[in-house]
Amino acid sequence: MRDDSVQEEQGKKPAKDDVELPRLGWVGMLRWAWRQLTSMRTALFLLLLLAVAAVPGSLFPQRASNPSNVTQYLADHPASGPILDWFRLFDVYSSPWFAAIYLLLFTSLVGCVLPRAKIHAKAMRSAPPRTPKRLSRLAEYGTVEIPAGSGVDAEQAVRDAAAVLKSRRYRVDVRDLGTERPSVGAEIGFLKEVGNLVFHVSILGVLAAVAYSGLAGYSGQRVVVEGETFVNTLVGYDTFTPGAYFNSDRLSPYSVTLDKLAVKYDRESPGHYGQPIDFTATLTTKDGPDAGARQQVLKVNDPVSLGGTNIYLVGNGYAPVVTVKDGKGNVAFQGPVVAIPTDGAYTSLIVIKVPDSKPKQLGFVGFFLPTALVDDKGVSYGSDPDPFNPQLNLNAYTGDLGLDNGIPRNVYTLDTSKMKQINGRDLKAGGIVLAPGQSYKLPDGNGTISFDGIKRFAALDIRHDPGQGFVLVFAVLALAGLMSSLFLNRRRVWIRTGNHPDGRTMVEFGLLARGEDHRLAGEAAAISKALHAKWLVPLDPQVEDGNRTPANRSDAAAGVTMSSKDQ
Amino acid sequence: MPTINAGFALLSEQFMLMAGLAYVVAFCAYAWDLVTYSKTVRRGLAVDSAAGTVSADASRLVGVGASGASDSGAIGQDLGAGPLDRGVRPSSKTHSGSDGITAGDSMRYGKEKRRAARIAVAITVVAAVVHGLAVLFRGLAAGRVPWGNMYEFCTTGGFTVALIFLLVLTRRDLRFLGTFVIGLVLVMITAASVAFWTPAGHLVPALQSYWLIIHVSIAVMSSSLFTLTFAMSVLQLLQSRREASIASGKPDKALVMRLVPNALSLENMSYRINGIAFVGWTLTLMFGSIWAEKAWGRFWGWDTKEVWTFVIWVVYAGYLHARATRGWTGTRAAWLSIVGYLCVVFNFTIVNVYFSGLHSYAGVGS
Ligand code: HEM
């Protein structure tokens, strides 16, 4: 089918004509633009442009995948950041210019594929083209001489040849029967072009399915500490991203309790010591409020399916359990606090907010170390992800947490602008250092804090994506189309016969490939072999060799026998 | 989870060292072949042109059709069949195998024995076997497939490059690529051992999946094929420059390039290999998405590694298009093939080492 595309290009008027736009009028201009857009050159240009346009998304942080890095980048680059942002370089894949490129590309694709499909449908229904005058000019050419007295005349030979080709799955058309030179035309490989069309259409299908999956699905995150239960309702999520078609009664009210998160670290190979090798979460799940409880195991790479969603284990860490009593001796806070791991040793940031403490609110910031060691300056640091020597290091603040005025606050940061620090390494009171089971009395009668124990938490991603099955179907179709397009060959074969005055029946055949076809010689040899076998003619070794050059001896010799009678 | 076998790990490293040394010897042998070959060519040319002047009549009688070729300085090499347009693109018309003076454009083996090249291939086979053992024992030591970090991608990748090269050699005479391909394998295992070295160990949970076996092995195989076509595209560019300069009547300066088939044959061969590799890359992309869905809950998220895999795919799609676009065949298509390969290399090195993303388990730096 390469021929078609090139002919299309060649058939176009030279560029000079295209410049005379005014005379074309509006319709002409539109036609001209459409022709430009659907030309192979434009397709190629748009493809390369798409590749280039995708690159910045890997150079700059992207809001879609990493919003906090974008905020950081903007803070670090106050001058260039907003300019980059104006160009949507932090949202490359949802930017108008990226969309423009792929929409143009797909428009071009449609404009390219539809006419081709029409042409091809016609080609598939019409007979193979007429037999060329000189078969010896074709890319592959050969002859068979059926000896005199074999009882096969030219007409019979052509029918036999057609049968041979048919058994090789060619579409055949016998013509010129009853003339001096009967012949058969044959064609094979329509699936190549069909494959090409299927491929391109399926690419379009993939895009549509991806778009659908973005609209119809939803995803959310939730951090669950051991012992906690997540219920699949909107309030159950920490963050929730609905697609445009989302509607909250789609959520099936299942519940998931994290019973235990077991983590195993590599203690064996020196080069990977302390690297995690297994995360296993044991869950108790219920399909609904009244359904029976089930035990299920959730692992990385092995999501749990529940209520039309998939639940993925995407993160984990420690949640130290603390109790804070206020100045009056009342328990103002008790429970696990999720600490965000920052490195391979699970050095984790922790923020504790105690809005209920009286008379003033309390806040703590610090870090949790599963295995604390102390360096020569007296600073603790984490050295291992397993809790061999857990330690909580905190600074304490009193004052206003800023929670009461209704502004949403990130639970993992503490706004200390309206607070007074009462504990810290630089203060007289020093920092708070706690091992499990220990408690500490805050200065100035602000109460006590105690470190009661450790739990683990699991970060879960919950996703519903009705579109991804379609994506897969179209991708598989595209793959199949691609393979038939690349690996099948479209070929034409003609075989012409004639009766020689001395009684022999002369057969000549020629093959032509449409497009590149490195196996055409092999096909010629196979056809030659099959014809020889059909008429029990011993195979001439010269013909068997598929590597003949166009001007070699056997061609010339064969050319004499046939063409002398041809013309 | 099986325990790490330190003995096997050590054995693997020793094999790797031996393989490296053997590749060095093979590399030298390929280089030696190039040198002796261009000497042979020079001698052959001298004989030919002498014969050409003496028996010009005789050769015309025989109808050899090589008359006049000696004027242009490229006897026997079918350099005229340049890619003017697809109309002249051969289907399967191949030129004969090597005649000892010029490479056969069919890239089939000729009758001429090239001793140095034979030695080089023999040593490559030995080196590849030892390299294969190194990879095998690395896998046995860790009790899993040996492609879980940069060191292993590089060493296993180098092995597949060598293996695929040898496999192609059984069908076609691509020995002219020897210095290039084996040189690249050497670079890969050297880089692995010096820059990316990591002791044998278990995989982090995110990598413990059968998709690692499927996705990465296909990625490595496709990249190996892209490596071959990269080499061929570079040679194609050099060859077509040489062809142009010979056609304009300048003397043939790079006799070594007679060892290399004409530009059109190189282009066609690399197109075929690139077609296979592109299907492989499409599978890499698809399997990667399926794995991403299993591991991270979404099949596509424009993670840096995903971006670059996509970019590579689109560039090679562009390459395939270019071959069907007038004015873009030949040199421009070769450039696209080269750009595509540079993206592959970039994706593997720079992106793995310097770009952060979900795929950052390459085991470097930490
Ligand atoms: C999303 C964009 C596109 C992608 C990813 C893509 C990809 C490909 C690939 C991989 C091939 C080679 C496999 C084959 O021969 O079937 C191909 C071939 C082809 N494409 Fe596209 N294509 C795209 C858009 C287009 C557009 C817009 C056009 C038309 C203007 C087009 C026209 C063709 C044609 C005519 C061929 C056949 C070339 C041949 O016979 O070798 N494609 N395309």
TrEMBL record, chain A:
Q: What is this protein called?
A: Cytochrome c biogenesis protein ResB
Region named Disordered = 542-567
What InterPro entries does the record tag this protein with? Answer: Cyt_c_bgen_Ccs1/CcsB/ResB, ResB-like_domain
The Gene Ontology biological process terms listed for this entry are: cytochrome complex assembly
Subcellular location field: Membrane
Regions crossing the membrane = 43-60, 97-115, 197-218, 469-488
The UniProt record lists the ResB-like domain at: 40-523
Membrane topology designation: Multi-pass membrane protein
UniProt keywords, alphabetically:
Cytochrome c-type biogenesis, Membrane, Transmembrane, Transmembrane helix
Q: What is its main location?
A: membrane
Its cellular-component GO annotations read: membrane
From TrEMBL, chain B:
Q: Which GO terms describe its biological process?
A: cytochrome complex assembly
What is one Pfam family matched by this protein? Answer: Cytochrom_C_asm
Q: Which residues form the signal peptide?
A: none
Which ranges does the record mark as transmembrane? 15-35, 116-137, 149-169, 176-198, 210-235, 273-292, 307-322, 334-355
Which Gene Ontology cellular component annotation is one that this UniProt entry carries?
plasma membrane
According to the entry, every stretch annotated as the Cytochrome c assembly protein domain falls at: 147-359
Recorded topology in the membrane: Multi-pass membrane protein
Subcellular location per UniProt equals: Membrane
GO MF annotation terms: heme binding
Instruction: Tell me the keywords, alphabetical order.
Output: Cytochrome c-type biogenesis, Membrane, Transmembrane, Transmembrane helix
User: Can the keyword Membrane be found in this entry's annotation?
Assistant: yes
According to the record, the residues making up region (Disordered) are 81-101
Q: Which NCBIfam families has this protein been placed in?
A: cytochr_II_ccsB
Q: Which PANTHER family match?
A: CYTOCHROME B_B6 PROTEIN-RELATED, HEME EXPORTER PROTEIN C
Record's protein name: C-type cytochrome biogenesis protein CcsB
Q: What organism is the protein native to?
A: Arthrobacter wenxiniae
